[in-house]
Amino acid sequence: MEKRIIECVPNFSEGRDKAKIKEITDAITSVKGISLLDVDPGEATNRTVVTFVGEPEAVVEAAFRGIRRASELIDMRTHHGAHPRMGATDVCPLIPVSGVTLEECAELSRALAKRVADELNIPTYCYEAAAFTPERKNLAVCREGEYEALSRKMGDDKKGPDFGNRPFDEGVARTGATTIGARDFLIAVNYNLNTTSTRRANAIAFDVREKGRPMREGGKVTGKPVKDENGNPVMIPGTLKGTKAIGWYIDEYGIAQVSMNITDIATVPLHLAFDEVCKKADARGVRVTGTEIVGLVPKRTLTEAGKYFLKKQHRSVGVPEEELIRIAVKSMGLDELKPFDPSEKVIEYMIEDKSAKKLIDLTARGLAEETASESPAPGGGSISAYMGALAAALGTMVANLTAHKAAYDEVWEKYSDYAEEGQNLMEQLLHLVDEDTAAFNRIMDVFAMPKKTDADKAARKEAMEAATLYATEVPLRTMETAYKVFPLLRAMVEEGNPASVTDAGVGTLAARAAVRGAFLNVKINAAGLTDRAKAEQLIARGAEIEASAASEEAEILAKVNDKI
Fold first, then answer.
1. Which pLDDT tens digit goes with each residue over 41-69?
2. Active-site residue among 162, 207, 436, 503?
3. Rounded to whole angstroms, how far apart are CA atoms 441 and 436?
4. Radius of gyration (Cα) for the chain, nearest Å?
5. What is the mean pLDDT of residues 77-99?
6. Active site includes 83?
7. Does the active-site annotation cover 562?
8. Catalytic one of 75, 79, 83, 417
9. Any bridge partners for residue 246, and if so which?
10. Would you list the DSSP string of 470-509?
11. What structural domains and CATH numbers belong to the chain?
């Protein structure tokens, strides 16, 4: 199950006083579930860039607390620095990482901007994807004239902020204004070249970057720049939208690089940018020998790249996440200059709770022994989910074996799609292995609640009903997910590699066992619900799935036996 994660990168107008910076970051991390990834203060800019991530609600609350503390500590009337700025919190973007869209981040940004204006009395502009007008998508437009221009802009219908617009006053003089918005994830990347020539690296950068290069008279490098009627240079656009790039020489490595910022990874993902730089480099007699990612990236950046390069080889993409990332690393040479450790470069891996004990991280023996112990969990619910995961794994195996056989070269992509679906179902069911045990523990937690007063008893009763409902819904989700494996198994029996037909047959037995086992848990947990109408509804849904699963099993196994 994909976790909902967003990143926030607020820029605070304080880069010299370490104590103040820590107070601001302490306010941010006071919110449970926040992971502080980076704090980058600048002496000359008098500005600190903070990076933190978490689930959307936690990130928005942490951003609010950081903005509030910054407004209490930073007086813009005495602020000076080399970087453009407009407020104590100058800019605060929300950025989707996983399970959240850019549009959702834009809505969260607008709500945060309104709250900052309403509760903190700080004027706020909305920019990028959260902008209310096209021109305000550009941060420079919102920040035009910087802090010193606020006395003229405040109260103005056209120049004033989106929230908290009023005549310039003592409060605005102290805090300045804040710009809050949503943008896509920015990837900073350097492409290593087999040349020491900065000029050639620059030429490749100009070939690809969105801005391109100035047009010159006669099409010659040494020709005079062509200008339009307003005297501005006429540009020849590059081939990659949403990218900025330049060439430089790195003395440490003894090579030239194309240094690029990808600002729209939805339009130009890393792997497409890599291929385009390779193409333009090759046209100039230069090779890209590797890639250096600067900072962190969302997991999807590497898994999508892995799938892209596997598809180019006509190979199945229905492989584990670790394999997709390994293919991405090798295909783009991410480990050329130094070892590439996904646990230190991928945001989702960086914020994983390493101390949390997960059943799915155990060995096969470890899971069996944990189940056999005196502890009541994991039990039948977790094992049912695991049987479903094994069913999906068997279907995926047959699909991958089929896609890899020479006889199926013309239809490899069809089986790749089957394998990818199987991988997704397997991951969902593996998640439910731990989710079922978490549901049991949630019921156990209710027993530890106080029950001295009538209020305690009422709260305990309400919590028990909620926990019991959850413990009933989880195995029902296991049933629904395991049932989705049957079409994959049927297809593999009918169309897959004939030598693996019994593997699909065993998968069918495992899927049926997963459904039947999970249904037992649905029924026993539903019996504890006081809401009998809800209980009967859940049991009826489970019975419907169980009956359909029995029919699927019988039909698929009959086909298996016909082929044996």
1. 989 889 999 999 999 999 999 999 999 99
2. 436
3. 9
4. 29
5. 94
6. yes
7. no
8. 83
9. 259
10. HHHHHHHHHHHHHHTHHHHHHHHHHHS-GGGHHHHHHHHH
11. 5-182 (3.30.990.10), 187-350 (3.30.70.670), 359-563 (1.20.120.680)
